[in-house]
């Protein structure tokens, strides 16, 4: 009887300890949950406004529009690239044919992590151009308004770097059959990385045709595209379109 009573007390003691531990754990979890809820509540972007009848919770809207205006439509790009595999930098220039859908004195397109050297519009005067980093916009302001149905040609000279990145126009390496490391230049544009390789209307709805010229070292280097090669010069300049 003594042994049975002893073990009964032990079992009851364990049960009490387990219950107390569970209670403490639940209390701690509840306290943590309450802190988390308060933290979330503090971070919710809402404010209270008195409307005369009671308090109404109103969500504060983000008024920043990250989409491009639809007043211009690109139709064709003439793009020239010169990636320097030794330095990891690249230079480029392009002409974009654009159709004016709505009258405007601004041309807005995407550009990110690019150095814009020069901007011009054929037969038009550019007042200024500026880069807006938050929306990754290149905003070009003209001295006069572009009329509806006008066709314009936008020219841009730019540069950038290919090192330490895996999107846009970037450099990569591989081992050839002899075990030597070779450097190459390649691209990744989807979903929104074309703007890191050249200024463009980087939205799916703004499709256009392209003619691309690539300068690369002679010898074992080749330019490869998902379109056919149209011209190849003795200076190893490849045009694809």
TrEMBL record:
One of its GO terms (biological process) is proteolysis. It is found in: Membrane. Its cofactor is Zn(2+). It is a single-pass type II membrane protein. Its main location: membrane. The keyword Cell division does not apply. SUPFAM superfamilies: Leukotriene A4 hydrolase N-terminal domain (SSF63737). Coiled coil: none annotated. GO terms for cellular component: cytoplasm; extracellular space; membrane. Keywords: Aminopeptidase, Glycoprotein, Hydrolase, Membrane, Metal-binding, Metalloprotease, Protease, Signal-anchor, Transmembrane, Transmembrane helix, Zinc. Residues 73-234 form the Aminopeptidase N-like N-terminal domain. Signal peptide: none annotated. Belongs to the peptidase M1 family. This is GM23433. The gene is Dsec\GM23433.
